[in-house]
């Protein structure tokens, strides 16, 4: 039967058909139409849009959006458009997994990005390994994420607590004060940050005069602040984050604690600073910050800020933040890895990411993706509050103090608990 | 016994523990007054109407959210007056439309109904004001701290303590010195008898629900600059309110004030010794009190025993 049909198509008809086909395909717009019919590449973004870290998601969706726009505006990736499917994890681990499960099964997403703090991210690390799907983690800083939770499918963009403490603690001991008191958020992120600070504090000969573990969702800090004042420290290290942090800053200001004690926040999100306003944010003697547009002398930052403002003129934050930066870096590097290997195959994309170094890191030094724990090794910065008269606008709140190289301050292999498994076929 | 002279500068104190104790005590009283203000409306509803109003927390949140909007337009004092009035009216509407259908039925029906109302209103808050929290600045004249001699203390918290004490005093004045207050008090003892004696029991219930809602609203207004506003903030109010009422005794005004102060002081003092249990301490306190006074410190027989 097949032979008969073949015989029925005359040479003339075949030539006519081929010519018509070529003509059709050369009509402007037709290839685009055909390409558009291909299914898009789907990124599942399980990010916090409510809960203690709800405000981070608003920044993260913009960062992911910029990276996706860079590809889609030049025709997509591998001839396909990129689509982002967003879910609110509400800063809640079981909910994050339920949402990720739905995205994977119902929407068949190709890759994941996740935020929402350490607990949802630890759950997402297990999820990525179990389901064999790549997950780029974009906002937490807990050491366990590239320590005991490290696996080949999970990549960690933000700087770890160990590196933050290694950068900030020696500077504080040398320049700000030697008698320290800790406020520790009572969950894994807070514990590991205080533990790391303590280690470097001791190395520098500074002394701990007390610690208060702050329960999650604490609203009233008055009793805690009175207790700190009683201990008479020189420095109060505030290892608290999210909505709890903004409430605390407001109450420290209200109680005038900063008039007698130097307040240091080893890691501050711009979103928090924005929420309390520049006046209350000026209580700090020093802030550790992963990224801000005020980093001087780094090419590409201005273009990134312009792109953000052009794409998101009505975003809740008028400038990109650490979290939009980390989300952008994670999404962009994932998509570039796909482009390099020319396929969506998980194992090939993992190998394209592992060990990769990129110069356009929007920081002073190139960023590397370490093979043995999947940590993005990047510089970490410290700032002090800018004086009101020097601010150009209310986003211009940071006065640059300095930075330390990620390659010199990040956790080393001998101290890390990371144990990577072999991939199928290795 | 060595007393703590308020005139001595706190920097020269040689007994930091005693001063910290005093500071925590004062702070506990301030917190207790706020908690009593939150709980007093709840106990009136429980005592007079006989309902466990789980929507009390969300009415507190509505008070804070209306304050957030009104303060940005007309300032703090306008928010302090208008916001409780709006919440009181919302309370009356809720009572007329929904709660009144539950009178005479099992108390659990009303508990479920108010729980549903609380969840619905919380979603409404998310739709209207967004999922994220907002901070509310204290009025500029009470911004920052004041030196009390032995400690620096928040000016706004002193204002809050004064306002809470004033609100509690006015409620007491109403209950004790007005004829309708006497009816409300009688309603807390025996609402059926109040009806038999010729009072309009339905109007009394509507009034108490509206009045209790307005009290929740005003507590929300004064708490907003302390705790910021968030859609889930009602939960910060309903649990302490419930514990305070159980602790102090259902329907008892003074029981609520004592319960509120006990909870405020216990949280404040727990931070001195066992900070990590500061969240739990009010529940532990309630459990211990109920072991010795099953009806609470000043309580009498109530619907909780039916």
Polypeptide structure, described:
The complex is a heterodimer of chains A (426) and B (306). By secondary structure, chain A is α/β, with parallel strands linked by helices. Chain A has 15 helices and 15 strands. In chain A, the strands form three sheets. In chain A, strands 7-6-8-9-10-14-15 form a seven-stranded mixed β-sheet, with helices on both faces. A five-stranded parallel β-sheet of chain A has the order 2-1-3-4-5, sandwiched between helices. In chain A, helix 5 runs parallel beside helix 6. The N terminus of chain A is likely disordered. Chain B is mostly helical and 306 residues long. Chain B is globular, with a radius of gyration of 20 Å. Chain B starts with 15 loop residues before the first helix and ends in a 14-residue tail after the last helix. The chains are: A alpha/beta (426), B mainly alpha (306). Chains A and B meet through helix 4, helix 9 and helix 10 of A and helix 1, strand 2, helix 5 and helix 9 of B.
E-strand count of chain B: 2
SS element count, helices of chain B: 10
> Can you list the strand order of the major beta sheet of chain B?
1-2
Rg of chain B from C-alpha positions? 20 Å
Indicate the structural class of chain A.
Answer: alpha/beta
The percent range for strand residues of chain A is: 15-25%
Distance from first to last alpha carbon of chain B: 49 Å
Total number of β-strand segments of chain A?
Answer: 15
